[in-house]
Amino acid sequence: MAEQPAVQINNISETDIEDAIADVARRCSNAGRWGAGDVLGTLNHLDESKRVEGARLVRRGRSFSLAQLFDAEGPQRGWRKRVNPVHTMLSSGLDAEFGPAEFPHGFAGADDVVFMPLQCSTQWDGLGHIFDHGRAYNDRPASQVVTSGGDRVTGIETVRDLIAGRGVLLDVGRALGEDGELPDGFAITTEHLRLTAASQGLSSRVGTGDLVLVRTGQLARARRDGWGEYAGGAAPGLSFSTADWLHSSEIAGIATDTWGFEVRPNEFPGSFQPLHQVAIPHIGLFIGEMWDLDALAADCAEDGVYEFWLTAAPLPVTGAVGSPVNPIAVK
User: Fold this and answer.
1) Of 62, 90, 235, 314, which residue is least crowded by CB atoms under 10 Å?
2) Whole-prediction pTM value?
3) Taking the alpha carbons of 319, 322, 326, 328 in that order, is the dihedral positive or negative?
4) Domains and their CATH numbers in the chain
5) What span, in angstroms and rounded, lies between the C-alpha atoms of 52 and 46?
6) For 92-134, what is each residue's pLDDT tens digit?
7) Which helix (H) or strand (E) holds 166?
8) Helix (H) or strand (E) holding 307
9) Confidence of residue 4 (pLDDT cuts 50, 70, 90)
10) Residue ranges in the chain assigned as alpha helix (H)
């Protein structure tokens, strides 16, 4: 697919912002591309041959979890009622040792429960997560997709067996940042992505059906200095101008080590997550956020190989518009 010219952020006046977003949305729309009934969006690009390609990348058998821990010490600050996980024991060793016998012959066990928003830590955004002017992915009325009972059309369970294939890391933080970290507010452009790929070598090529991971280094900074405003505050991230690349590259999904994927503060005054507004309801792109890419990035820098087998299946919570995930990269 021929790549369209990227929107010029600096040339857009405040009064033209909505029109600019709408223009890019039209240009990058995948509505109807895979039929009126499609619920998979960009995962249509990730077919069986791409999974075989990804599986063949395993050479050393070394695996990396790309998930943050799900616990009460996480990054959330309560925005939109997003809190950190609350983990409670329903029964414990105290019950077994000091309580009445639960089962015959000394048998006992422990059980627990977790309460958490599905997007409180390492996660996928599903296709029902974001709307544009009341329209959901594939130009459906938002009210007919997500109701009080959940996402009735593109619930995250529809892709529970699909997100596995060739992963590629673009370590922009290491390539362009100071000490491996980009400063908050750094807008990653398509050129930055290309420069990073070129500096990393041939294993960093990005093509149809790939699962792309973009490391900014912000999580490393939060891990060192404390969460601060990691959740919702200023952050490095993708520029709105990358929308055309996200569409034309035909990637299956993309994830970052930041809370919100795109640069914050957002580039357009008065807007909120405009790249989400194009990427999810129009491109149908699966977006991962708050992934922990540091250990994988260190290994990639050491051996010079930035491609790997990646499996990142969401929890099949029926009707969910996002899901926690423990992605595993294997090299």
Assistant:
1) 90
2) 0.95
3) positive
4) 9-78+117-330 (3.50.30.50), 85-115 (no CATH)
5) 10
6) 999 999 999 989 999 999 999 999 999 999 999 999 999 999 9
7) strand 164-171
8) strand 307-311
9) very low
10) 17-27, 48-55, 93-98, 142-145, 172-176, 190-200, 218-225, 243-248, 274-278, 294-303
